[in-house]
Write a structure and sequence with these properties.
- The protein has 255 residues and is an alpha/beta fold.
- It has 10 helices and 7 strands.
- The protein has one domain: NAD(P)-binding Rossmann-like Domain (Rossmann fold, 3-Layer(aba) Sandwich).
- The protein has a 7-stranded parallel beta sheet, with helices on both faces.
Length: 255
């Protein structure tokens, strides 16, 4: 295949933009999808004019729209869709005792989990025809540990991890590997909306970071993008059904 196409959902966000940039740098044509057209325009401005970058407005929660977008990408960019990065996601801070917690939970699970189901279904069929593909799901350490005030988010990411393992079993015989990345705390706009910024400002953040993260810093989108690019370009299909925690070693207990 002379020209391989990578699909990145939620491409206008912090992780998505870094992932799109990294994949372009290693030679992929990138179909950057997002619900927000204005943010996609800013993404193009940020990454610069690039003949291998095209943007598509897509709501991952709408299966018909996902199917239509998949067809449009194949028609405009070609049929060699070999990489899907299920990155689109939202984080809702809601407690079970809150009146609107059920509505918020439904929205979070619909975007983070059902959206990945919709995209995997639509784009994996292109990979199956090629007998080659890499599906990379952006989960979270919350899906491994849980998160107080973020039960729906944690549940959606735990579901995505188990879906990744299940898809790896289903699609492995077609030479399509499925992996997941579970980032720890990373500096993004989405994190800022979840964390109480005033409370965060009242403490010595650097001291806290060094006390709980062995590498002494929070993650950044470029950290995640580097591993996504490794998984996308990895030649072996024996790296399959793997979940990679990326938390700087935060999960390791200290005395």
């Amino acid at each position: 295949m002379k020209r391989q196409i990578a699909i990145v959902t939620g491409a206008a966000g912090g992780f998505g933009a870094a992932i799109s940039k990294s994949l372009l740098e290693v030679g992929y044509a990138v179909a950057a999808t997002d619900l927000d057209a204005a943010k996609l325009e800013r993404l193009v401005q940020r990454l610069g004019a690039h003949e291998d970058l095209k943007t598509f407005v897509m709501d991952v929660t709408d299966p018909d729209q996902v199917e239509q977008c998949a067809a449009a990408i194949a028609e405009s960019m070609g049929p060699n869709i070999t990489v899907l990065v299920n990155n689109a996601g939202i984080i809702g801070r809601g407690f079970s005792l809150a009146e609107k917690s059920v509505l918020l939970s439904r929205q979070v699970i619909d975007v983070n989990l059902t959206g990945a189901f919709n995209c995997t279904s639509a784009f994996s069929r292109h990979m199956a025809r090629l007998k080659y593909g890499r599906i990379i799901n952006i989960a979270s350490v919350a899906g491994l540990w849980g998160a107080a005030g973020g039960a729906a988010y944690a549940a959606s990411k735990a579901g995505l991890i188990k879906a990744s393992e299940s898809w790896a079993r289903e699609l492995g015989p077609l030479n399509i590997s499925v992996t997941a990345i579970a980032p720890g705390i990373c500096k993004t706009e989405m994190l800022d909306r979840f964390v109480d910024s005033e409370a965060a400002m009242s403490v010595d953040e650097a001291k806290i970071v060094k006390s709980i993260v062995p590498v002494g810093r929070w993650g950044v989108p470029e950290d995640i993008a580097e591993v996504v690019t490794f998984l996308a370009t990895c030649k072996t299909n024996y790296l399959n059904a793997t979940v990679i925690p990326m938390d700087g070693g935060m999960r390791v207990g200290t005395l």
